[in-house]
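The aim of this short unit is practical: by the end, you should be able to scan a pair of folded records and say something sensible about each. We start with the first protein, listed as its amino acid sequence and then its structure tokens.
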Amino acid sequence: MFVKINGEQHYLWRAVDHEGEVLESFVTKTRDKKAALKFLRKAMKKHGRADVLVTDKLRSYGAVLKDLGMADRQETGRWLNNRAENSHLPFRRRERTMQRFRRMRSLQKFAAVHASISNHFNQERSLSSRDIFKTNRTAALAEWRGLCAG
């Protein structure tokens, strides 16, 4: 994901699971093999090795996965990356509200916090009835209030 900080282009690397929840986010100035390696190592250390990695067609991913011995697990395709691309939308909406970012550090902090909060409250509304949705939403709000109070 491309993000501008004070007119300079930076890159927000994001790992998204099969349900669209953001697992990991990482900000860099470059979009090369070194940055991809650092991001993938960080994500794999925290969440383990994935069976399948869906990426865009950036060649850095292929080079890093080849070094890690996971080249056969990478998938790239025209619509395979949609889940990750659609997870950018709430982030972009919030970014516009905040009137952009001014430092890499504030972007990194915001990305991490935004991901955890949106994962907590994001309920797949279309997959459940209204009663179940409301019950889950109430439970999420109660848990959130408990976290904020303590």
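Turning to the second protein, read its sequence before its tokens, just as you did above.
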Amino acid sequence: MSNVKIAEFTAPGIKNNAAKDAISVLDDRMVALIDLQLTLKHIHWNVVGPNFIGVHEMLDPQVEAVREMTDTIAERIATLGGVPVGTPKSIVERRRWDDYSVGKGLVTDHLTALDKVYNGVNEDHRKAIDTLSELDPVSEDMVTGQLAQLEQFQWFVRAHIESASGELKS
């Protein structure tokens, strides 16, 4: 399901074609963030082994923050005249990546996989920032702020799977 702009107006000062393009970029980020928050909760429920409780408790604040980011993006889509669609089927249809594959697993297995998830989300947020810089500085600023927080969350994850010499487990 593609995001269809149905309003006849957008935020004052932004051209309709720029708003439509910004909505498309924001929709992609919204899908990624919904997927990320569900993945984080899945890991929270299924992580086991040494350091279980530390990881289990580290993830809930990330879930809440990502949920807040999702809401902010959805509301920006609506502000620009778009329709934020967050139904499960529509999210899966618009997702460009494979589903998270680790079920019940050890801390290191989950965090190594989660690091890869953050790689994708954060790289795509950077690309979105570049695109939005030409379309809508408000959306660009919003996504930039989110990226700072997402990169910090990835740092938290990497601290668990990094060696003393700075190498990540693969």
